[in-house]
């Protein structure tokens, strides 16, 4: 049956503008996910085959110590703001009577104001550092996809940057890797329409990439087209409609 299909496609290529190609469905992206910071797994929100959205929290490490420190840092910031307001108010009053007080006294008040301002800035930086640390304890999906591998469980220890905890592939976006006879290398162009059929449904995709090399064994070159909602690993056949 396949020989008949190939012969039919060859004849169409000779007399028409369509070129036969077979293809494999591959993931558009594939990533091994790691934590930027060490810790102990506190929550796992996914499993193998879970469909996830970009930005979704997949795994979280325990952050109780950081949350406590963050509350303390926020209290410290409020105290620093109050101290700064008092120092600013005092400085404003001294500015009004600057000519009636000693230079040393004025410089002391001005110095206290600057110190209060620095203390507030340090408190704000401490909060940012803690919030950043807490954020790094939450592993998020880098793009829409499917989880293909999970290597940790609740209470597992995680080593920063050195331990793959999840593997994800992009979905529903996928790539079709087309195999095309070498004789058509100069015919196929970016933007050409690829027509194929899977599960009794007619589909189309535009050629987005053409590899300029030919496989020595198969005597074919590859091209790629983007598609959606197809299972990675599927195989199929179709026709490329060349742009004149």
Automatic annotation (TrEMBL):
Tree of life domain: Bacteria
Keyword terms of this UniProt record: Coiled coil
Annotated transmembrane regions: none
UniProt entry tagged with the keyword Coiled coil: yes
Parts forming coiled coils: 70-140
Gene3D superfamilies per the UniProt record, alphabetical: 2.40.30.170, 2.40.50.100, Helix hairpin bin
Family under the similarity heading: Belongs to the membrane fusion protein (MFP) (TC 8.A.1) family.
Protein's name in the database: Efflux RND transporter periplasmic adaptor subunit
Organism encoding this protein: Campylobacter gastrosuis
